[in-house]
Amino acid sequence: MKKYLNELEMELNKYKKDLKEMNEYMYNNPELGNEEYKSAKLYCDYLNKNGFNVTENYLNIPTAFEGKYGGIKPGPKIALLAEYDALPEIGHGCGHNILGLTSLGASLLLKKYIDEFGGELYLIGTPAEETNGAKVTMSDLGIFDKFTVAMIVHPTEKGHHRSTTSQAMEALKFKFKGKTAHAAGDPYNGINALDGVLNLFNSINALRQQTLDSSRIHGIISKGGTTPNIIPDYAEAKFYVRANKLKDMLELVEKVKNCGRGAALSSGTELEIENYEFSFYDMVTNKTLSEVYEKNIKIQGIEEIYEDEGLGSTDMGNVSHRCPAIHPYFPISKENLTGHSIDFAKASISEEAYKGMAEAIYGLVLTGIEILTNEKLVEKIQNEFKNKK
Ligand SMILES: [Zn+2]
Ligand SMILES: [Zn+2]
């Protein structure tokens, strides 16, 4: 595959300036999940200009899009996914500006090989990874089922990291209803909804000792009353519940819900539990595909690929239950960086970031070329996917 590297480098040079400009534009105009109108437009205009068949407002998700290329000669169907949502107050602290553009860069370079070898290429814009991940809706609608592979590469610190697992996650909201009363005059006539929430936190804190080490339960009090002299008649808590495997997560969710039910009983409140965001599945990395990508990173002279614990969650997990998928990482900094921080956002427009981005683009394109040209490899990837199901 090494023979392709020179021509890929020359090809990427044509787009480098534009990619850099788009990256800085998104860095300076960060948009929250499902509000990424400017970013989505930027992608759609650029894809149109470069010969892709573009669907805006894809699946009636206003900031989603699909850019399709090829399909003239039969062959594998490759999906590259873009994210472009930012975080409140810290902007692109997860680097989704450069993340999406890495997939765009790889799509632009892959076109030529789709012309040559056949197959179809899709760049899919997937909004709101940080909150109501659109990949969940898209997965549920079955749009990923047709793909030979789906790939996305996320920015990180210090070196390339392999695609591993991510945690399954459910977002639970506990709504406690009580009755107001004067907190000093006749508190005995009230039912304190905030007690429901406090009991919930205490029960969950007791539960922690009996959970798997890899589990995470973390919450906030999103509503806790209006003023101290009124017994709160409404209080609310939001939690994320995570575990490494979907099955463990579902068991843990039931235990956490029981903490809420007990809290309602002991406080005399009424309780409603709901999902306030979509649930994310665990990431199941296709090892065969992942090894090909890693090999294509290493042939660029990168010696070591690191491995993380796979903590945190992503809606790419849902995609990985639908088709063979990877979610590796490329470096945007030589220094330590904390995810979801202003420093991380700053690093996303650094020279180091563009270096890592180019390496990831070459990794994706070379992997794409192998998918388009090696039937045996495709079969192996598909078999692994079927066996894991
Ligand atoms: Zn993030
Ligand atoms: Zn992210």
From TrEMBL:
CDD domains: M20_ACY1L2-like. Residues 172-258 form the Peptidase M20 dimerisation domain. One of its GO terms (cellular component) is cytoplasm. Gene3D superfamilies: 3.30.70.360, Zn peptidases. Pfam families: M20_dimer, Peptidase_M20. It comes from the Bacteria. One of its GO terms (molecular function) is para-aminobenzoyl-glutamate hydrolase activity. GO terms for biological process: folic acid catabolic process. Keywords: Hydrolase. InterPro entries: Amidohydrolase, Bact_exopeptidase_dim_dom, Peptidase_M20, Peptidase_M20/M20A_hydrolases, Peptidase_M20_dimer, Xaa-Arg_dipeptidase. SUPFAM superfamilies: Bacterial exopeptidase dimerisation domain (SSF55031), Zn-dependent exopeptidases (SSF53187). Belongs to the peptidase M20A family. This is Peptidase M20 domain-containing protein 2. It comes from Cetobacterium ceti.
